[in-house]
Amino acid sequence: MITFPGFNQDCRFFHGFGTKNDLQLPSHWPCSEVQLNQVHGASVFDLKKFPPEVADLSQGYDGVVTSLPEVVLTIKTADCLPVLFYSEANQRVGACHAGWRGLRLGILQATLQSLTANKAIGGVRAAIGPGIGADHFEVGDEVVSAFVGLDLGFQAYFKSCGGEKYRGDLYGIAKRILLQAGLDQNKIFFEPRCTFCDPLSFHSYRRDGKSGGRNFSRIGLLPAHL
User: Fold this and answer.
1) 182-212 per-position pLDDT tens digit
2) What CA–CA distance (Å, rounded) separates 163 from 140?
């Protein structure tokens, strides 16, 4: 399991970006876990009690936040970016599933808004886990146009590879969005390991197709007295 010591520098929470060998919760973690019905959108679920009502989660969410301790928030990915958040001021954690559609729709901004309750986000930390690298994320002109229509600056994250095909940099796009939202550059951590080109460690939808598995990324608050 991949962790970032700088992300969790004050040891107020536990987190990890899983590999193929990390499908189950670590034995020393709480067993209370929340998984979302992910739909490549920008809706965020605010977990205020555990367990949540099944109906509350059924409509589909790609982000989740909470201030409840000892509850594991889990995101499943297979090329999309898993992004974990911690707000020291609010003592809240969050997680979201950020593929190109979610990034385009604003899943990072929506998760930050739910995490901070519209307060200042300067102290928020974010960690971006393994996802598909720019060398393997090939998209069509419609994807480029979707981003450039929002902000011309996104053009820099797409490189032509012939015809009407481009290679997109999801990491670069996500980091730009977080910086524009107000995060400190020194509080954004990332693991630029490509899920597509590392079959021993990660599942990849583009490499393995529908039969492939999912990588599990998790975060949760520790009890306040620890």
Assistant:
1) 999 999 998 778 999 999 999 999 999 988 8
2) 9
Domain coverage including residue 29 = 13-132+187-221
% residues pLDDT > 70 (the chain): 98
First to last CA, the chain: 23
Look at residue 55 in the predicted model and tell me its pLDDT. Answer: 67
Closest CA to 132 of 168, 164, 179, 101: 168
CA distance 139 to 116: 33
Structural domain includes residue 154: no
HEC string of the chain equals CECCCCCCCCCCEEEEECCCCCCCCCCCCCCCEEECCCCCCCCEEEECCCCCCHHHHHCCCCEEEECCECCEEEEEECCCEEEEEEECCCCEEEEEEECHHHHHHCHHHHHHHHHHCCCCCCCEEEEECCECCCCCCEEEHHHHHHHHCCCHHHHHHEEECCCCEEEECHHHHHHHHHHHHCCCHHHEEECCCECCCCCCCCCCHHHHHHHCCCEEEEEEECCCCC
**How many residues are listed for the chain in this entry?**
226
Beta-strand relationship, 188-190 and 124-128: parallel
Whether 3 is covered by a domain: the verdict is: no
For the entire predicted model, the pTM comes to 0.94
Domains in the chain: how many in total? 1
